[in-house]
Design brief:
Layout (H helix, E strand, L loop, with lengths): L18 H5 L8 H5 L1 H11 L7 E5 L4 H14 L8 E7 L2 E6 L7 E2 L4 E4 L4 H5 L1 E5 L2 E5 L2 H4 L4 E5 H5 L2 H13 L1 E2 L17 E2 L3 E6 L1 H10 L3 H4 L1 E4 L3 E3 L3 H17 L4 E2 L3 H13 L4 E3 L2 H12 L6 E2 L1 H14 L2 H11 L10 E3 L1 E8 L8 E13 L4 E3 H4 L5 H18 L7 E7 L12 H13 L2 E3 L2 E3 L2 E2 L5 E2 L4 H14 L7 E5 L10 H8 L4 E5 L2 H9 L11 H18 L3 H11 L1
Keywords: Hydrolase, Protease, Serine protease
Protein name: endopeptidase La
GO biological process, one term: proteolysis
């Protein structure tokens, strides 16, 4: 078998080709969306065109202030300022109101800007207010009046949570006319106010769930509106793309009044960014996440520059603050309350890895767990205890069935498997879902059927398809680090390690203590493409081989022995009939 052990250099992003980018100052991006968001920029340019037929645009992004500001600034760069005042002027005479076109920017209902945004708004904030007090009428403009002739950007949640507000706004935009209507139909307006012209375009900004809720409220809008999306990550393959990302970060730092980054700070920030994005070739563009990292590092650095030490110290402190739950889990294992073996060999037992993500807790963390399998004479049924106890989700059940299909295909039996098996996550009392344990379950099942032990110093993660190919999974860094922490607490032996899918190698960005241990040969990582490779690492036997002892041969021999024993128990006439049928 080809050596699948990973060298330490694969455990973090390779930044050697970008050293020149870090050594020279990267100016902040002056037009960030035009540089990094070409698709979104094209959509905004079309939406802001004077002859565009669309009055609505749906934009997928987080409903956070940074996104609203970036979109609004870009729209202002695209839309020219009007040559003449836009809007109206309301004249109040006693208890009567008349409407006239605005002639100067100071008029009470003249537009204030070509683009106005608000993440959350109330009725009067959007449409203005009409108040009467002691025979005096007071008219207050709303956001639709401030943005008249331009673009209004609002959050999707504000519209979906206030359907009446959305319906009235939509009708006014389509009719291009603003009508004074009461916020409550049971309380009519005290006086009649004439309507006014309204030339407004609307951008609804929200995440995918928010826009899905809006689609439920207004199904036609998805087909009628322009669509744009803020791409959350930038794929880095060339030095030019890295320079653009650095310019984006410097732009965010400049907007917050933070110092520039030192050359040594970039690799540290990039490692943190890769952990966030989950891919060595993709760096996040999320302004909220990046701004938080910059601000936290500024607390540990000088006022002149942000250094690598500042980013490392802030990250180390943050992880310590958020690691109480993961440390308690490790304590439970160390105290023997959760049983996980990291030495010796056991038939039908494998160390699997999962990721726990508690609602309200910011840090997902890995957890080692035992999967065990026992085999006995039976009718070929493979029992998934989690599923039967209604603790296994649908994706977990799918992974189990795929793994069973692979095994049945590999055995090439012309009759039913004479064994039954039972697979279980030991000491698991909550719902289990996902297929990332199907590789571990397959290893445990094959070990139990072949009656060959599994090395308990090795943990495994990955899913399997029907052809035995190992597929990528999520949370690979957290899973590896959880098993490493367990092994480190019990003393590293040099034979411990984790098996992971080859497709997950590009997702690796591990902590320094894991990298040092791998570099010094105290801990190992193996990348595999098939379940055959994982089995050979964990059992020291090939899954199938023509000339050497193999796991498949052991299973077939065991099946043959059972069948022979069953035939010897039959009366002589049935044994003769069975021989006749075979010949």
């Amino acid at each position: 078998m080809t050596n699948k052990k990973l060298e330490w250099k694969y455990l973090l992003p390779d930044l050697a080709d970008f050293a020149a980018v870090f050594d020279q100052p990267c100016p902040p991006l002056s037009a960030p969306l035009a540089t990094l968001q070409a698709r979104l920029m094209d959509g905004l340019a079309q939406f802001c065109h004077s002859r565009t037929p669309c009055r609505f645009m749906l934009l997928t992004a987080q409903e956070e202030e940074d996104y609203f500001q970036l979109i609004a600034e870009t729209v202002k760069q695209i839309l020219p300022a009007p040559a003449q005042p836009v809007g109206s002027r309301y004249v109040v005479t006693g208890m009567g109101v008349s409407e006239q076109p605005a002639t100067k920017p100071e008029d009470n209902f003249a537009a204030h800007d070509v683009c106005v945004w608000q993440s959350w708004l109330e009725y009067e904030q959007l449409f203005g207010a009409l108040r009467c007090y002691r025979d005096a009428i007071d008219l207050q403009p709303g956001l639709v009046h401030h943005a008249n002739g331009g673009v209004l950007i609002v959050g999707a949640r504000a519209l979906t949570n206030q359907p009446l507000l959305w319906l009235r706004l939509k009708q006014m935009i389509l009719r291009q006319r603003f009508d004074w209507l009461p916020a409550d139909d049971s309380r009519p307006l005290p006086v009649s106010v004439p309507s006014m012209p309204l030339n407004l375009r609307l951008i609804v900004l929200g995440d995918r769930e928010g826009l899905a809720d809006l689609n439920d409220l207004e199904p036609e809008l998805t087909r009628l509106a322009l669509y744009g999306e803020f791409e959350s990550e930038l794929r880095i393959t060339e030095a030019e793309e890295m320079a653009q990302w650095c310019g984006w970060v410097n732009m965010l730092a400049q907007r917050q009044g933070l110092p520039a980054l030192n050359a040594d700070a970039w690799p540290t920030l990039i490692r943190q960014s890769v952990r966030y994005s989950g891919d060595q070739c993709q760096l996040p563009l999320c302004p909220q996440w990046l701004t938080r990292r910059l601000k936290e590092a500024a607390l540990y650095g000088s006022q002149q520059a942000l250094t690598a030490a500042a980013f490392s110290d802030s990250e180390r402190t943050r992880l310590w603050r958020e690691s109480y739950l993961s440390e308690r889990m490790q304590d439970e294992i160390a105290e023997g309350q959760i049983m996980v073996e990291t030495e010796g060999q056991v038939v039908g037992q494998v160390n699997a890895l999962s990721v726990l993500d508690f609602p309200g807790h910011p840090l997902p963390f890995g957890e080692p767990s035992r999967i065990s399998c026992v085999v006995h004479l039976g009718d070929g049924e493979i029992n998934d205890v989690e599923r039967k106890a209604e603790l296994g989700g649908n994706i977990h059940a799918k992974g189990m069935m795929i793994m069973q299909a692979f095994l049945m295909s590999a055995l090439e039996l012309d009759q039913q498997l004479p064994f039954s098996a039972s697979l279980v996550f030991e000491q698991s009392y909550g719902e289990v879902d996902g297929d990332s344990a199907s590789l571990a379950e397959g290893v445990a099942l094959i070990s139990a059927l072949a009656d060959k032990p599994i090395n308990q110093q090795i943990a495994v993660t990955g899913s399997v398809d029907q052809f035995g190919r190992v597929q990528p999974i999520g949370g690979v860094n957290e899973k590896i680090e959880s098993f490493f922490a367990l092994c480190q607490s019990r003393e590293l032996t040099g034979a411990q390690g984790v098996i992971l899918p080859t497709a997950n190698v590009r997702h690796l960005c591990l902590h320094d203590d894991v990298i040092v241990a791998v570099r010094e040969g105290q801990f190992s990582l193996w990348a595999v493409d098939t379940i055959d490779e994982a089995l050979e690492i964990m059992t020291a036997l090939p899954f199938d081989h023509d000339k050497r002892p193999s796991l498949l041969a052991s299973i077939r021999e065991r099946i043959a022995n059972v069948n022979l024993h069953e035939r010897q128990r039959l009366p002589w006439c049935f044994r003769w009939l069975n021989w006749f049928n075979q010949s």
